[in-house]
């Protein structure tokens, strides 16, 4: 199952708390604004020369073809990886994947591992599983170091520490680095170059000492058995080349059939994620190469709910996701609440659909996620592989509703809709209802708590399980004192 931050409340509760944190909102607004501007510039450049929409269509088509023939592609990937000297493992869920990685580390008496930034290892809770066995897992991506040293949780797919500002990061480095390795230098400032330099020095001894490294993969090319990692700092290259043993945990949806089909994805990903034409570091490795890099390579192919998502005809498009985070950076909800409110390592619009698809509905926290959206559609417009997130959100909302039809609130709602259908299906009944609402409107207009535009009054809070929640956060306009039919009759169609 997809990892969830233990103890996180449902999205509305978590979001309300986040909205009260003005520093968080400032950090998010600044960071997402910068990323959006960089991305827009690079997308416009492609639009002018090649056609961004054509590139999006090509990327979506590649992922769809790979998913339609997933079994064939995975079998070929295993065959090519094995032929190149890698050991391939299959994991149905997080527990199996974690057990495999722990076993490999123990076989080599490793007391620590270094890690390339990996969403999938966060999804399965690998760091915690290793720690439970006395093995330290060191994150090496700058943002991940900040999160780890700060005893924090990631809040963004691309920039896990987006909720932190430079001053906070400096304090974390000064307070925590010396407890787990090389301390922060004296007089450390909050300049980005100084902070990056401190992280580099802190990590160097870990890179040189580690026997085992753990990575994910952005893509896996079936025809050659090649894994691909794209990153911006060079820490990934260090993890992938220095240790003797490399374990790569790869979601089964990451497979693409061929190098040719990898091409549009490598052009879409950097522009959509970091606002760059290409990543500074694109590392590829195919099994074991004698005398060069790790001499023992393990690849864990992970399901963990992905076949469940694949079986969902509407939701399966979420498996196209290349983890660029473009949808987060344009989402008005994410920008105001941050990633922690989603209660998972996959936050934002993609997290709002991916988590329920991987885990299934039925849990209160997960069931709240499809509603963490205004359905404005900005996420679909930004997605480089054209995942129609609003469509999937609506689809998942219907599943949540279907799963709660026996609840008291749902029963009351059903009764209310049946009552409305009864009234609206007959003109006489509708006329009587309009008279009643007119009377209610005259009363509420007199005692309403708020004046709306146009001088109308708003009703106060309405009692009842559903109505109380709805009206506690919204101004419900009081019904008009006179219905249209009554006005028409009184004025003879507006002629009097």
TrEMBL record:
Residues 318-387 form the 4Fe-4S ferredoxin-type domain. The keyword Zinc does not apply. Residues 454-468 have a biased composition (Low complexity). GO terms for molecular function: 4 iron, 4 sulfur cluster binding; metal ion binding. GO terms for biological process: lactate metabolic process. Residues 454-478 are annotated as: Disordered. Keywords: 4Fe-4S, Coiled coil, Electron transport, Iron, Iron-sulfur, Metal-binding, Repeat, Transport. It comes from the Bacteria. Residues 399-490 form the Lactate utilization protein B C-terminal domain. Residues 77-302 form the LUD domain. Residues 60-87 form a coiled coil. The keyword Metal-binding applies. InterPro entries: 4Fe4S_Fe-S-bd, 4Fe4S_Fe_S_CS, FTHF_cligase-like_sf, Helical_ferredxn, LUD_dom, LutB/LldF, LutB_C, NagB/RpiA_transferase-like. PANTHER family: LACTATE UTILIZATION PROTEIN B (PTHR47153). This is L-lactate dehydrogenase complex protein LldF. The lineage of its organism: Bacteria, Bacillati, Actinomycetota, Actinomycetes, Propionibacteriales.
